[in-house]
Amino acid sequence: MGAAGESARVADARSRAEHRLRRQRDTLRPLGLAVIVAVVAGAIDGNPSPGPHGEGLGVALALCVFAAALALAISGSFTARGRGLQVAVIVSMGAAGVALAALQARGVTALAGGAAVWMAVARLPLRLGVTLAGAVTIGLGLATAMSGSSSAAVVAALLLCALLGFMAYFVKQARASQDRTELLLAQLEDAREEQLRAAAIGERTRIASELHDVLAHSLSGAAIQLQGAWKLAEREQTSPQIRTAIDRAGELVRDGLADARRAVGALRGEELPNVGQLESLIASFGEDTNVDVTLKVEGEARSLNADAGLALYRGAQEALTNVARYAPGAVTLVLLRYDSDRTILTVEDRLSEPSSRLAPAGVGGGRGLAGMRERLERAGGSMRAGPTEAGWCVELEVPG
User: Fold this and answer.
1) Low-confidence ranges of the chain (pLDDT < 70)
2) Is the peptide bond preceding residue 273 cis, with omega within 30 degrees of 0?
């Protein structure tokens, strides 16, 4: 898990870096074991050989310290230990290597000091690692010279430590460079996405402002004109059909104004309604229209994607509006059912006298039902609507 506020892309880059480090250390672990075997075998064949007394005891103790320190340093849990313990282990390894070089003038004991140099550079922070590596190299050179070895042997020991130190440095830097590159690329992608998102939000805000200024002004003006037309028609005692048409036009304008405001809110990034708000929708609908409507939920509730949740909410909204418009006085049941792989919303109204329904649902060219169907199909769902024995039923279904 990345740090708080870190994107999934950056966290993935850090995870790959950690995996690469573990894989590199796992690859080098057998080489570390081979170094232990080589140093132990060389010390046993050297002079003096390990023993219980004198210099032999010193060789045995230095050999044990080196083998134990290197075995711990190449273990998988070494990097999880504290920095102080890591430094102590590597210092012990270097001291044991210097002691072996001082006690055994010939053999492969210089390899022990070289292993300590590698570990210091590879495992510790650069400045600390180079300082310890330099100290071990100098100590190894002095010990080799004081043991009576030739100048060539001293130079060889120094060159071995220097070569291993540089190799560890370049391996470490190459890995760190790759890690930094991947992390910077991830951060760059995040910054690019954020820039595009900010540009999109800015453009949506501009469009929302334009829509609000144009549509809200125009529709509000149309609503005022229709109110005036209705009053004029009432004063002039025009036919009921004309007044009904004006009423219907007023409803359409008000619905359009509400839809425009919702669209503007969506463009501005406001939270879109979903099935979690059905309860409040039904409560306000019942209070506003005096329709007897009940919500029932079956199955275990779960989150739906934004398109599916919005499609069900808008479908319920349109179906309830049709109930109030064409079947006033109907008893209505809104059933939200969560199946294993789909979610179904049913809105069914029942009239005591089915013939009293004022008009078929979806009147007006089927605009409401067609809009519901199109929204559901965009969300991957479907809709079924039709008459029942006592009323009308609309069933909306979405995956998830």
Assistant:
1) 1-5, 105-107, 210-214, 216-217, 255, 258-259, 261-263, 265-271, 352-368
2) no
Give the domain extent around 234.
Answer: 204-267
End-to-end Cα distance, the chain: 28
Tens digit of each residue's pLDDT (9 = 90 or more) over 60-73: 898 899 889 888 88
SS3 332: strand
Asked if 147 and 160 touch (Cβ cutoff 8 Å), the reply is: no
Same domain, 109 and 232: no
The residue out of 154, 189, 224 marking a domain boundary is: 189
Residues 1/12, Cβ–Cβ less than 8 Å: no
Per-residue pLDDT of 353-371, as tens digits, reads 655 554 444 433 345 677 7
Q: What pLDDT score does 356 carry?
A: 52
Name the phi and psi angles at 189, rounded to 5: -65, -40
Q: Is residue 198 part of a domain?
A: no
As a whole number of angstroms, the longest Cα–Cα distance in the chain is: 129
